[in-house]
Amino acid sequence: MATGTKSSIEDNISSVVRSHIRSGDVVNVIVEHSDDPDGIIIVKIIFDAKNNKLDVKETSQLSRHVWKRLIELGEPGFPSLSFIAKSEAGKLAAA
Question: Based on the structure, what is the number of domains in the chain?
Fold first, then answer.
């Protein structure tokens, strides 16, 4: 059973994302709790970076870092991350 509140979980996910992405600016982090029975947590990361690209070394390991934090919070969900360039995000870019 999760020990963190929805707000706490969202804040923690945002903190982990922002601390690991250095190749661009994180504009917004949107967290949605899926109705999926497996407890998928959808994380949309809106970023602004040169040529609309983030460093793959940062992004490839980010799910693991977010998942580790979720486990620490007692949250059973698994993160599904999406990276969206600010130029493509439209209304999602509003922080």
Answer: 1
> For residue 49, what are its two tokens?
């970076």
Assess if residue 95 is contained within a domain.
no
Buried-state track 39-74, b at ≥16 Cβ within 10 A, e below 16? eebebbbbbebeeeebeeeebeebeebbbebbeebe
33-58 residue pLDDT tens: 888 788 899 999 999 999 999 999 99
> Considering the entire predicted model, what is its pTM?
0.87
